[in-house]
Specification:
It contains 20 helices and 2 strands. The chain is mainly α. GO terms for molecular function: DNA-binding transcription activator activity, RNA polymerase II-specific; zinc ion binding.
Length: 471
């Protein structure tokens, strides 16, 4: 009996000793948790705030700077003259593709622990990565529809209105149309044109912003179009959209005072798309852009007027026509001494045929002139690279004559020759000729003397009020 109390004391001492060890373990754990370094390793501590934008543009993220997140162009990219690109549409933005969301369920997903717990299903939110367009873009689109429909092919207004209707289905086509509208609007603004209601709204904002926006849309259109063409042969509808985008980009280059090289490349690109990417160009909605369609449109301009008089080719703007054609004959004769390659000789011969047919008053001059555009597309890749190289002075002089010849052919239509589009063509042609002359060595500048003199004289007459803005 005397041993029983002793056993009970031993039992009481063991729990007391165990409690003492538990308190020691809790104390050790608490001291470890008090260490801020170990606390951060466990993920329970506060994190440093994010000092840069999470929703900024790609350019600012690449440069590791804070983005203002202003759309469509942030302040940083606008200040540096860069193309502002965004990975995702804005959460709240009016316009096409404005942040539409769709829920995607990922799973079921097996847990890696294999402890028999229930399987999980992940739900993620995916943003629709379509391009976002702002209010400025709507203004460019409106200007395209109302004021910037390209003048060619003759009578092709309905075709271009169809392009506007289908633009929302193709991002490359929409960007091409917006680029064309922006460049045309910029040209209207810098020319002081009053024929467009939208010019006065944009002139105060400066043309520099418009030029950057036009260039941004052009770059995006070319990138998206390249992606589309790299997918292989296109369907009829896709082929029409691709060709329309190429034509829009070509006309846009024709409205850019520094777009001469782009214009030549895009003319060739139109032929490449028509020959290699479209199922059948004659069955396309743009078959009127072919040589026969081009000629048919110009012949319609020479139909009898209300008085029953048919304006023959030799009757249209006779004095100015004879002046420029006679000047072409002499200037092309001099340039012949510079031509060495087969492409240069053939291009020179083609222009001589156009001038000769125009002097004779033949309507075949239109068909031969359309073939001049085709020659750029018919050259082999190596020949085109050599012909369009900046150091090929003979080819540059030939192109200068060709640009002026294109302006003269459009002068046949007396309404277009003195219209707003005629003034734009004259201004851009003069800028391109001056660019060519600047790149020529001193001993070759004289070969461009007559084209430059005529272009400057015509621009002076237009600026002096010789021919007002007609519809």
């Amino acid at each position: 009996m005397s041993n029983i109390p002793s056993r009970r004391r031993d039992d009481d001492e063991e729990p007391a000793e165990e409690l003492h060890h538990q308190r020691d373990r809790r104390s050790t754990t608490t001291s470890e948790n008090d260490d801020p370094v170990k606390q951060r390793r466990g993920g329970g501590g506060p994190r440093k705030g994010h000092t840069k934008s999470r929703n900024g543009c790609i350019g600012c993220k690449r440069r590791r700077v804070k983005c203002s997140e202003r759309r469509p162009e942030c302040e940083g990219c606008l200040r540096m003259g860069l193309v502002c690109e965004w990975a995702w549409p804005a959460k709240r933005h009016l316009g096409a593709g404005s942040g539409r969301r769709r829920m995607v369920t990922m799973g079921p997903r097996d847990r890696s622990s294999g402890d028999g717990e229930d399987e999980e299903r992940e739900t993620v939110m995916v943003m629709d990565p379509r391009p976002v367009f702002g209010m400025e873009d709507l203004r460019f689109f409106q200007h395209f529809v109302l004021d910037a429909i390209p003048p060619l092919p003759v009578g092709g207004g309905e075709v271009w209105r169809g392009v506007a209707r289908m633009a929302h289905e193709y991002d490359f086509l929409m960007h091409a149309v917006l680029a064309l509208g922006a460049s045309h609007l910029c040209l209207c603004s810098t020319s002081g044109d009053s024929g467009s209601d939208s010019v006065s709204l944009l002139s105060s904002s400066g043309t520099g912003v418009m030029e950057r926006q036009a260039l941004g849309h052009r770059v995006r259109a070319i990138r998206a179009l390249n992606d589309k063409l790299s997918a292989g042969r296109l369907s009829k509808v896709d082929g029409d959209a691709a060709f329309a985008a190429m034509m829009a980009l070509t006309f846009q280059a024709g409205y850019m005072v520094d777009g001469m090289c782009d214009f030549v490349a895009m003319v060739r690109g139109c032929h490449v798309v028509a020959d290699n990417a479209m199922p059948s160009f004659p069955d396309s909605a743009f078959s009127g852009f072919s040589g026969p369609g081009y000629v048919s449109g110009f012949r319609s301009l020479l139909q009898p007027d209300n008085s029953g008089r048919s304006p023959r080719l030799e009757d249209v703007r006779e004095a100015e026509r004879r002046e420029v054609l006679d000047g072409f004959v002499g200037s092309l004769r001099d340039v012949g001494a510079l031509c060495g390659s087969v492409c240069e000789v053939e291009y020179l011969a083609g222009m001589k045929r156009v001038v000769g047919l125009a002097i004779a008053g033949s309507e075949d001059a239109y068909l031969e002139f359309a073939a001049m555009y085709n020659r750029l597309g018919e050259m082999s890749s190596d020949d085109f690279v050599r012909f369009s190289a900046a150091g090929n002075h003979a080819a540059r002089i030939l192109l200068g004559h060709f640009f002026l010849l294109a302006q003269v052919v459009e002068m046949i239509n007396h309404r277009r020759g003195r219209s707003r589009e005629g003034r734009f063509r004259a201004r851009v042609t003069l800028a391109w000729l001056e660019e060519i002359e600047e790149g020529l060595p001193g001993e070759l500048k004289g070969y461009l003397g007559w084209p430059l003199g005529f272009a400057r004289g015509r621009m002076g007459r237009l600026d002096g009020g010789d021919g007002g803005c007609v519809g």
